[in-house]
Target: MBL fold metallo-hydrolase
Amino acid sequence: MKIKILGFYGGYPTNGIGTSSYLIQSGDYNLLLDCGSNALNELQSTINPLDLNAVILSHYHHDHTADVGVLQYYWQLHLNGRREPILPIYGNTEDPINFATLNWDNATVAKGYNDLVPLHLGPFTISFLKTHHPVPAFAMRITDESGKTMVFTADTSYFDGLIKFSHDADLLITDTNFFADKKGLKWHMTSEESGKLAKNANAKRLVLSHLPGSGNLNQLVAEAKLQAGADCEVEHAIQNQLIIL
Ligand SMILES: [Zn+2]
Ligand SMILES: [Zn+2]
Model:
């Protein structure tokens, strides 16, 4: 499995870098996980967007879906050379209004997922866990045929259910929008919470993502590392970083 980080900021693009978007590849299968701001530009630098097999969205906040509309136009305007006749875009069905926008005539089709049944997409098996967030959002556990596993927490505040869901992940990508000293109501995790989650889940590698647009990211990593322990590799997301499992 290969994971390329196309964008990693939470909330809004900044510093020339976009928001949540990851290209997940195994064999010749191309899955786009989230489609945030600037995702289509970054995708075009990596593959032909018509070579996508599917898109999957963790939830419908704009920092995860901002480029869905332009991706739909891209497919609409390129009738030839598509990997799939119509691009499937997977999303949760708990928000029917946003789910319906995943349909675009002759370009994309909305497909539902839920946390009861794993989804099989090409070489991937994907299971879901509903997170704690103001709108329905789903963490994903993605395994390919080699048995390698990545877990993506999606947007969430910390809750214990994430530990079991993330157990023994080869790669854990967490929503780490806050430094350790964040006080008050949180709809995202802090660096310390991400580190603790990685340790308790026995994750091999932790990548902090959905990052804040300001502040020292090395401090964010240091705070997470203190909790994650020596057995877990900890880093923050880097633009265009390619992770091979
Ligand atoms: Zn977000
Ligand atoms: Zn969100």
Observations:
- The chain has seven helices and 15 strands.
- Helices lie at 39-44, 62-65, 68-76, 96-100, 161-165, 191-201, 217-228.
